[in-house]
UniProtKB/TrEMBL annotation:
Residues 1-19 form the signal peptide. GO terms for cellular component: bursicon neuropeptide hormone complex. InterPro entries: Bursicon_suB, Cystine-knot_cytokine. The keyword Transcription regulation does not apply. One of its GO terms (biological process) is neuropeptide signaling pathway. This is Neuropeptide bursicon beta.
Amino acid sequence: MSCWLRWALIVIFLVSVNSEKDEACETLPSEIHIIKEEFDELGRLQRTCNADIAVNKCEGACNSQVQPSVITPNGFLKECYCCRESYLRERVITLTHCYDPDGMRLTSEKMATLDIKLKEPADCKCYKCGDYSR
């Protein structure tokens, strides 16, 4: 058996072992700290608001494969799959800690909170790496 054929059989064996693993791409809860600055029409800072927000994130592993190929220049065909969002959900978040430019906490009903829109993953799946069209 030639060296090339023996090596190709080893690669095929490794690919089939790796492809037996289950994909573990999932939507997981996470927490982020958001800071939003608000400016007036002249560009002066009016207030800075922040909060710790619970959001979803995509995390996990997807099956990727490498196999010998006589068509590709390097002799291998690689198929890479990445875990990322399949759908983004928009929701309104209320930032509850607002401060004036001097760092003083704002307490007036109109200025004490700030609503912002945030997009987060609602579902995650494995997609071919570099393929962003959904």
